[in-house]
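Deviations from the work plan: none for this task. Representative record:
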Amino acid sequence: MRRLLFFDHLASAIFSLKANRMRSLLTTLGITVGIASVTMILTLASGVVGSVSRQVEDIGNTIAVIRPGVSSNQLPSVIRPVSPQQYSTSTIEEADIGIVRSVDQSLLVAPIMTIEGRLTSLDGNIGNGMVVATTPDIAKTTSLPLQSGEFLKPDSPSHAAIIGTQMAIDLFGTDDPIGQTFTLRKQTFTVTGVLKKMKNPINYNNIDFDQSIIIPYATGKTFHGGRSQIQQINIMASSQDSLQKALTEIDKKIEAAHGEKDFSVISGEAIAEPTNSMFNVVAKVMAAIAVISLIVGGIGIMNIMLVSVAERTREIGIRKAVGASNANIIVQFLVESLIISLIGGLIGVIIGILLAYLLGALFSFMPIITLETLLVAAGLSVMVGVLFGLYPAFRAASKDPIESLRHYR
Amino acid sequence: MRQKIDPVIQLRGLVKQYGTGDAEHNALDGVDLTVEPGEFIAIMGPSGCGKTTLLNILGMLDRADDGQYLLDGNDVEQFSDNRRAHIRSQQIGIVFQNFNLIDHMSVIENVALPLTYHGTSRTKRLQAASDMLKSFHLQEREYYMPWQLSGGQTQRVTIARALVNQPSLILADEPTGSLDSRSSHVIMEELSELHQKGNTILMVTHNPNLTSYASRVINMLDGKIASDKKIRVAVTASSEEKIPLRSVKRPTKDDKEADSQVPARRRKRKK
């Protein structure tokens, strides 16, 4: 078989693109926007995953969580992150907590239940944030150090509350509101402790503790009519070995109790899946922008390539007359559209990374550039270039040589 | 080289139609023709008689509507686009009436273009193109753009491009169309030299003087072959007949002189 003449086509493509500098630049821009958003999302996402896994590592890989629903495979987690199931009915039952405890008495168990409602202080300030009902073990599974007061204990009064620093300032106008009271859905709580500022909005609990209030688990249930509505159960063991041993048994026992596998037991790296709802929204919006702009950019490429093919009808005729095969012509025009999309992609990657670092600085976490991100960006560029370049290229190749030669200019 | 007995080209009842309904007419209306290897055929006839259409079909740029075209004994109608491209690339050199050079490529790149589709490396390609241009006394014009050349030079570049892939079949459509008689004979000398080397040449021309170079003259009229006569001039054997004619018109010494006249002619025309 004859060669594909890649380098010859490269030279011809570069010439053609240079001849129409402005046109090529604008077409490239379309791809740049798309690839920049993709790169930014991926870089932010790996930053998020990275910061969560660092937390997990810090605690020593002895943490596991039980979440409702069965998590699908890992790949789409970045594109379609696990949605926070705050408003849906959880499949995790209160009995499951007992099952976990029964497997290994030494396990620390912290079920997390979030409660919606308006927080009102005596002064009439209204706070915005999350109310978390959980057990005292949360302090260890998530390491929540206190700034003042004392954490919940098994024998704490039922209406004690631990408050995050930012929440304290919003609700009471001070970062030391111990002893003050607030109401949540007609129940009055007294602040007994204030959390240290964490600056860690992204964590595997899916909760920004700086903006939250922690209340005893049993009290939380009263908001759900005495039933539990568990978002996840945190489990912490004394060592990695004992954790793994316990987890297999927990998995089996809960499945037996439920009669089906409607929950997932997640440990290690997998915990780091981005589940933060703020991040979800950003990621989804960005993903939509990326997809739309990539399609628009691709259409731009197709458009410009069709113009180019029409302009060069005569050249195509000449090339065919001196022996170019259809494949030669197809590759010639594909190389041209590929160059547009690759240059656009390259600029897009650079801009995307810069934007990610900018956003990272705003939200106080480190974005991480991974090889995967670069590969995905490169792959998408190639895909758009080929996909939207194919039709014009085939059109060029299917031109009748004699008709093309008659074409004026 | 070629199989001994097989003719290069066999045409049987070739028909090509243009237009539809009332405007329909046959550009070719049942052409039968057999071309043996090594023939130099001059095709004559008034304009509109189907000469160019015939060459286009022979060069596989166009397809006949009816009839049969056998190339080296194979029915061309059965060929895939790929096979056609391959044959155009390996076997056929076409000299176009209107040159058909690519405007944005230099002379040498234009000449090297057919070799690109041979898969020849760039260096070798340019070397071969340069050699070819040298044989047409155009070595100083290598890096000119096509629009910077005179008519005669453009014509020679076109021929150089047709010959660079060393085709066995050369199809030339009025290769001297826009040239004065002196330059015409320079070109004819080149073609005749190729003929001596054993190439098959089909040439369309309006100029009866040039048919003296051919070994066979075909006259066409209204899409049909009106007359077909072989001239007994094997250039090598009985060259006596030809010598007087050629010696008169041959541009004896330097072609550069001929070149320099062409721009002068053009300058006049501009005024």
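The longest helix of chain B spans residues 181-196.
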